[in-house]
């Protein structure tokens, strides 16, 4: 009899536990975090109220919730409690020490760039918006210092830059003649201008995008510390540019205008993530990659119907590297590239009313106007907060050969946004908002 009662009570407890909130994040009861906050995301039952370390948690009408907890150094015990169940999470906060390396100066050494598309940076940091050019394999450099994982590149009397140590090899060949300037050429077409400049060796360059023109600079520091060649190419309001360097040492800088009719535009649509890469996981346990693909498909059909030549980077739930996505865009001669995503926040302080909405990212200045246009039309179409147009160094939007943006339609980890993006009409509406932004941008005089 007593045994039966115990079984009954135990099964009652089990039933109550099963019918209670579920946590999506943290994924494990024990976790390690390298920041000041731990992030809790999940879904509760309709009748449930949840507290985390005795602080009340906002729960959206669909049960979604998200909450951040400030951490102290070392182990933190965090109690997640509802009227049905209590769970204890242990989060260990790691303190990350940023070691500062001194600059070490040395006599100039010659080196060669190992790979194409190697970033040349303003600062010795592998992050952020500090790139001033992307060098080609075999480019001849002079190095005159180091700091941490970077070498300092001597470009001219007034200009140095930084390159990752792993991206160069010291050039121990016999001292050869410095590069010689051969010739320079300008050609103008209806929608493009092309400048070429030729040397006897591959030399480093930088690019500066100013209000009216793009300035490419080629440096020949072995010849003299003041040997800098400026190529100023005027630009239109909607433009893109490419840089090529052939094996003889001839640069071709091309600035071209975006077609002003959508029927002449090739638009590459990139559904973010896919396959094993799920993207962000929402409060309700839904996967970003699936929603991205639905939006991308709807967007493709709207833009094709409007007459654009549309290419999709993926049409299935499959793996695709960032490089694959960039190559698809380049091979298809993209004019516009749009990567479709939903956002999430990391382990930062969460504000339900602030960490939500639509944001659009761009890398090159030529893409800022499209980013603004999409943010405006998308947030008004789906009713999200405007979370901003921001610069970011994401690999898929770094190429300057096309106008490129990365759209974060809403936040997967925001309970209020989760009510929006789980609507059955969401993908269609988000696509309509993005399409409107693109079309307005192309047709703007
Ligand atoms: Zn994403």
Describe this structure in words.
The protein has 3 domains: 17-93, Sandwich (Immunoglobulin-like), CATH 2.60.40.10; 100-257, Immunoglobulin-like, CATH 2.60.40; 262-443, Zn-dependent exopeptidases (Aminopeptidase), CATH 3.40.630. The protein has 6 helices and 28 strands. The protein has helices at residues 2-18, 288-305, 322-331, 368-382, 415-421, 426-443, and strands at residues 22-25, 30-33, 37-43, 50-52, 55-56, 64-70, 74-82, 86-93, 104-113, 118-121, 131-135, 140-147, 150-156, 159-164, 168-170, 181-188, 192-199, 205-209, 213-219, 228-234, 239-245, 250-257, 266-271, 309-312, 336-343, 358-362, 386-391, 403-411. A 6-stranded mixed β-sheet has the order 24-23-25-28-26-27, sandwiched between helices. The chain has a 5-stranded mixed β-sheet with strand order 2-8-7-4-5, with no helix packed on it. Helix 2 (288-305) crosses helix 6 (426-443) and helix 4 (368-382) packs antiparallel against helix 6 (426-443). The radius of gyration is 27 Å and the shape is globular.
Quick description:
With 445 residues, this protein is an alpha+beta fold. The protein is 19% helix and 39% strand.
From the structure above, extract its key features.
Immunoglobulin-like, alpha+beta, Aminopeptidase, 445 residues, binds zinc ion
CATH hierarchy, class of the largest domain:
Alpha Beta
How large is the count of helical segments? 6
Helix content range? 10-25%
State the CATH superfamily name of the largest domain. Zn-dependent exopeptidases
Note the quaternary state here. Answer: single chain
Low-confidence stretches: none
User: Helix- and strand-based class?
Assistant: alpha+beta
What is the β-strand count?
28
User: What form results from the Cα inertia axes?
Assistant: globular
Rg over CA atoms, rounded to whole Å, is 27 Å
Q: What topology, given as strand order, has the largest sheet?
A: 24-23-25-28-26-27
Number of domains: 3
Distinct small-molecule ligands in the complex: zinc ion
Beta strand %: 35-45%
The major β-sheet equals: 6 strands, mixed
Query: Mind telling me which CATH architecture of the largest domain this is?
Result: 3-Layer(aba) Sandwich
Distance between the termini: 85 Å
